[in-house]
Specification:
Distance between the termini: 30 Å
CATH superfamily: HIT-like
Largest sheet: 5 strands, antiparallel
Bound molecules: guanosine-5'-monophosphate, zinc ion
CATH architecture: 2-Layer Sandwich
Oligomer: single chain
CATH class: Alpha Beta
Number of domains: 1
């Protein structure tokens, strides 16, 4: 997608603090961290949100969830972490390229909404 911030980050057109990369997946530090460790994991292919996961692209989502434990281990999140993906206005999604927030490195609030 031409005007998508995370597509541009995935293509390296906008710099990011990368923590993991392969040919299909990129993980980088959130610019405005909401926890001691706050990483965003994205597929390089544009998918708008969790609402657009389907039989054609779900393999990439499965791959993201294989990568997340590796990132968590590398980041020292042995005491736990939280994975969140906001989809649509009710969830306050602000970047419309699917991404999984990985939050940790501290005790987090019990409530999620
Ligand atoms: P959302 O609100 O869509 O769930 O999450 C979008 C996230 O992207 C926010 O946590 C925000 O801080 C992060 N973000 C927005 N722009 C940039 C950017 O240019 N670089 C990085 N690394 N993170 C960004
Ligand atoms: Zn995109």
């Amino acid at each position: 997608m031409t005007d998508c911030l995370f597509c541009k980050i995935a293509e390296g057109k906008i710099p990011s603090q990368k923590v993991y990369e392969d040919d299909e997946i990129l993980a980088f530090r959130d610019i405005n961290p909401q926890a001691k460790t706050h990483i965003l994991v994205i597929p390089k292919q544009h998918i708008g949100s969790c609402a657009e996961i389907n039989e054609q692209n779900s393999r990439l989502i499965a791959k993201i969830f294989e990568v997340i434990p590796k990132i968590a281990e590398k980041e020292g999140l042995s005491n736990g972490f939280r994975v969140i993906s906001n989809a649509g206005p009710d969830a306050c999604q602000s970047v419309h390229h699917i991404h999984f927030h990985v939050l940790g490195g501290q005790q987090m609030a019990e409530k999620m909404a």
